[in-house]
Amino acid sequence: MSQEPHRVVIVGAGFGGLECALRLKGAPVEITLVDRRNHHLFQPLLYQVATASLATSEIAWPIRYLLRDRSDVTTLFANVNGVDAANKRVLLEDGDTLGYDTLVLATGVRHAYFGHDEWEPFAPGLKTLEDATTLRRRILVAFERAERESDPERRAALLTFVIIGAGPTGVELAGTIAELARDTLPPDFRNIDTHKTRVVLIEAGPRVLAGFPDDLSAYAQRSLEEVGVEVILNQPVTECSADGVVFGGKPLQARTLIWAAGVRASRAAEWLQAPHDRAGRLQVQPDLTVPDHPDIFAIGDTVSIADAKGNPVPGIAPAAKQQGRYVAAAIKARLAGQTTAPFRYSHAGSLAQIGKRKAVIDFGTIKLRGTIAWWIWGIAHIYFLIGLRNRLSVAISWLWIHARDQRAARLITQGSSKVAR
Amino acid sequence: MSQEPHRVVIVGAGFGGLECALRLKGAPVEITLVDRRNHHLFQPLLYQVATASLATSEIAWPIRYLLRDRSDVTTLFANVNGVDAANKRVLLEDGDTLGYDTLVLATGVRHAYFGHDEWEPFAPGLKTLEDATTLRRRILVAFERAERESDPERRAALLTFVIIGAGPTGVELAGTIAELARDTLPPDFRNIDTHKTRVVLIEAGPRVLAGFPDDLSAYAQRSLEEVGVEVILNQPVTECSADGVVFGGKPLQARTLIWAAGVRASRAAEWLQAPHDRAGRLQVQPDLTVPDHPDIFAIGDTVSIADAKGNPVPGIAPAAKQQGRYVAAAIKARLAGQTTAPFRYSHAGSLAQIGKRKAVIDFGTIKLRGTIAWWIWGIAHIYFLIGLRNRLSVAISWLWIHARDQRAARLITQGSSKVAR
């Protein structure tokens, strides 16, 4: 009875880490949830903040708030920079350490520039709220500068937006920027015709939305082209600079580049000196523990694992949540002296929005596209948003956009025109 | 018929400048509205962004959007850094110039530290959206750091918030921070008791809300003290530093200081080498023109002018709007060859919120306080918000706060714990 409670430390409060903490409710454990942000982020809608459709507070919640009723959970706002597995301690950047009995690593991914980190300042990616407000500023400032630019060539470069990578994020960004230019902005400007905006989506592979079936990819491409997006396939970008991009040996002048082409796992594998794939993702056991570290679980995007058919489990929110749930159950089982079956991923479906009133959905046997898919996409996303208020607020924002073609969050913050390069 | 249209340049899209542009509708003029921000800001609610009650997009709108239907108005996102009155040109920072026939200066105010500009990094003020998100971050990070601080003295300093200046902004900030600590945050933290937060409001003068009648000041002070704010009167602050403040010869350890004590007019008087008062405000003629510059009007906070009784016109939104409206009418009259009567300020009333369900209102003959005043305050502010969507969104945010004691916008952005000093 006087035994010390079992200490679980969870690093990262994304979909996987948060789900694990939530599902450990009632277990005889003491939980510490560490994140370097104070908020949980609903990443699937981050592109809507970047394109001025939603406000930051509509897709993010203080982690403490989400766990306010859980006295067994301590939330820590801190940077982790290592794990001392021999002594079972998590090392924090400020010198503190946290002892654990079981550790759950849910540290996610960051952008990867495939050995070209020097491209990052020119082609920022989209992973955090700050990334989203930075992109929003760059996109809006580009139109502002175009409005004042008299040189036609420079003006054209300001009105050219290049998105590198045609996965769901790239497709969603391209579609939304095209609509911003076509539907929202035209009445606001006097010197430029924002219909002339070029949105160029460049993909190294042979089709957009490579994770979807061929026919949905083709449909997505057609839909993007209908709203004016130029889709360029089979062309890896070979240079990003302040002037634009180079692909296929030719330069394209563009002042706004967005990187949606690749990610790299966080440093969890480095911390543990554990086996990982080329993208830095930990190769875990079937029970999601790290090899030789039975007390360390790893989940979500920072992990490389295959489903029952041998296909890689995708880096999407439902997969991370399933893993968080599995680990919570595994910890409970262990403490009860039971064993657990290996993790099995169950794929519910893939969704991607393409512009304002279209989406594609792949449920495996059922494939949907067009307006009906868009409604399901919207309802599913509103449903999964945490917190009644945000659901309502996002629903109102979307209705507003669709009824009036207006976007409420078109704010350039973090400085005046001075700041924008 | 082939005459060039009369060119009006308005510098500043705050309440005065925007109102002037809106009221010039239909006049035979060509308007250019220049602002260094892309958004018009509803400053009276800025403290609610700083205290995590509202999102930035709920109180700000793209200037272009507000004037999208006005083909006679060109909106320019640019920094003005001078006026060449002899040649009738506005000088932009990037080297461009704008010719005018009539110029309207509505450039507002910034913080003033009374000769102690070195205090600014320690005691930031609240004038822009960036100021508000910076303050929000500092306030939220202070609680986060207190949660992890084991030294009682340092923890107490982290949980001490000092607001310098007890005008409406200071009073509203103090009341809202006290409520954040008492009503919103307690269930979120494990190591600290946020009820023990000290909110100290320091005022150099003899009472809070000096612009209000004595009895409302006394009521506001009592109400603040009821929610736990320590009100200190007749004490000018003599030092601000990373450790806290000094007043009355004694230091008070505090990690979060907020400056609400004074403002200084923008550089418009410098640009024109025109007469101004000690706070840098232009001394204008009864028709709001600048002496010796009949083609230059100046309005709003950047101007010093008296009402019919000889009292200074207050630096509030309704006063700026009345001046904007007056100048629009004056420009129209001049173009029609008519003269205009001098500007007359009509004071509708003064309002200030004190914490969640209380306010004071001074309508001159009628004085209101308490819950009824708070309802009028809320309805008036929602009414004056531009744009149906924001009204709805703010109303929902407020209902949510009052029903659940939750604040949606509690996001620490612009960096992780690293960034916070």
TrEMBL record, chains A, B:
The entry's keywords: FAD, Flavoprotein, Membrane, Oxidoreductase, Transmembrane, Transmembrane helix
Domain of life per record: Bacteria
Positions of transmembrane segments: 374-401
Domain FAD/NAD(P)-binding: 7-324
Biological process, per Gene Ontology: aerobic electron transport chain
External alternative NADH-ubiquinone oxidoreductase-like C-terminal domain mapped to chain residues: 347-399
Keyword Transferase: no
Similarity section: Belongs to the NADH dehydrogenase family.
Name of the protein described by the UniProt record: NADH dehydrogenase
The species this protein was found in: Bradyrhizobium erythrophlei
